[in-house]
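TEACHING EXERCISE
Course module: macromolecular assemblies
Task: Read the component lines below, then compare them to the predicted structure of the full complex.
Student: A.B.
Group: 4
Components provided:
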Amino acid sequence: MEVGSSKRKNYPVPEPALRRMPCYLAYLKQEHRKGSKYVSSTLIARDNGVDPTQVTKDLSYTGIAGKTRVGYEVAPLIDALENFLGFRVMDKAFLFGAGSLGTALLHDHGLVQYGLKIDAAFDVDPKVLGNEISGVKIFHIDDFIKKPQSDVEIGILTVPAQKAQDVAEIMINNGIKAIWNFTPVRIKVPENIVVQNTSLYAHLAVMFNRLNSLPEEK
Amino acid sequence: MEVGSSKRKNYPVPEPALRRMPCYLAYLKQEHRKGSKYVSSTLIARDNGVDPTQVTKDLSYTGIAGKTRVGYEVAPLIDALENFLGFRVMDKAFLFGAGSLGTALLHDHGLVQYGLKIDAAFDVDPKVLGNEISGVKIFHIDDFIKKPQSDVEIGILTVPAQKAQDVAEIMINNGIKAIWNFTPVRIKVPENIVVQNTSLYAHLAVMFNRLNSLPEEK
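Instructor-supplied answer key:
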């Protein structure tokens, strides 16, 4: 895996397409494991609950096209998708807020496989400062502000909701370009800052509602 | 907090509205902390980057309406939102796959505050069986199949992608009604089963693409 951020050469791709691509990737890896050499867009479409035209369009962003009758060659398509999605270049990140959810993310080694390595964590709670979780040390947020310029451009925001906006501003003022926001707060940021919202509890709310709307069993 | 699933009396609400509600909730809690007694839909709208009409419509699902000129009374609206979103009734869940991400979720005590308590975890890896993480014990998946009928209706799916469909079927065949799917696989389920997809790595892909599409700095 390459290290660094030599990958700033993309153009923005529609979010729904980007979100479907990791599903295709997981699917192709399964096919690869089963020994499939080729797979058709019809099959990818059927097994992922998507329209075949959509599959062709989504995959075209990677620069790979299927061949008539045989379809896509599995191994090169896996490579192309992983490269395209940025999973093969290792990006560094700082984590802000080493509470319960922050700690949970530090335990998730899966992130590294997808190209994200957490380099350091920051908090203000004396009880956690100096601790190390999965090899990542927790520093005081002031150490982030005082640190020399770094090449870390991604910040993971897992502070309590009432601190989200303040900490986001500290992040931005100190070189963070993309914020992965796990708080339920809609943070306000300048135009040139990327925000990716991932509110687990919002997903939970949707799931509860759907479960509670199921017809009662007899 | 109530325990049990006496809450199956909802009707399905559009997903975008459900997803916005936890943002309003976080916002209202902040206002409450600041001592605000009332807050207008205009203010909620402005601070959450939503249209005021949208706010009024979203909040109307809770059964609470704002009053002319004063707006919404903060404390009762917080109660109504938490009740409506199912965060005040404790639902039990089983976790399937105590690998890296599964373990991470077991470390997140935040889930309990939002009404989800993980009762037991299941895996097949002898290295983790019998372990206890944050008070949750890890059993063999066969113990799930052999267990007497339980009132647990929610299953969290954090197994490796290639096991996702098989394990989902085991879950469904043994009483699970709602699957919180953290794998990138689009699992196939019968119509009466709820699936909530939360692929962290899909979000990561979107963030990478946006970051890499930022204009190069001079």
